[in-house]
Amino acid sequence: MPSPMALWRAFLARPNDDRIKTFGIAVLVALVSAVVVSVTSVTLQPLQEAHLEAERQARIEAMLDTLPGMRALMEEAGVDALETRIVSLSDGRFAPEIDPASYDMRAAAELPETSIALPPEADVAGLKRRANFAPVYLLQRDGDLMLVVLPVHGTGYQSTIRAMLALEPDLNTVAALTVTEQGETPGLGARIEEPDWQALWPGKEIADQTGRIEIRVVRGEASGPHQVDGISGATRTGNGITNMLQFWLGEYGYAPFLDRLEREGL
After folding, report:
1. pTM of the full predicted structure?
2. How do the domains of the chain map onto residue ranges?
């Protein structure tokens, strides 16, 4: 039986316009390319995750700087960063068995064993699947909650919009909304990342007196405590923000956690 090297030499010796040689070279190039891409992806994944986490933390830090007196409050509490904890979205309990530093909510949402398929009638944010656990960021002083930050995401007009929603201790007043990732139309929907628009959110209320989630982006100018001005020409992006918040503040989102937090505290 010919050796592999002999077969390889015979293959290379074929004319360049030989169909077998052309097909074989194409297959080899495809295989080598696939291996290179796979190795590169696996090698760079930790660096990519570290970069995303650093960017997320930078966004949170920038958000904290927009909140009046927040840095002084943190200094008084003796902390220089928010505490990250993992919560179960099904019952709102903390999950101390999960390490916040290594938990990847995006990856978890893609796996059947670490996520749930959302009923179409509940999936107003267009997620299809939702991870079983989510990180939350807390600021407390002497056991009292001073700020809670919830990562939220949903489908916009042209992209997945990701943001951080900060709530005051009453868990109904918005302290800040910071968009951390979006790919909406430049000059229109992309303006949701501008400081002037994000400055419209502090002081808004997420629910009415009955507990119904009412926070929303409206067309034109806001006329109540639950409304935020829309961006001209970006109605679908505004609807995406509204649907995102409606979902994540509802029963399939952080509602169980916020209800438990209100009843039991930290």
Report:
1. 0.77
2. 4-44, 67-264
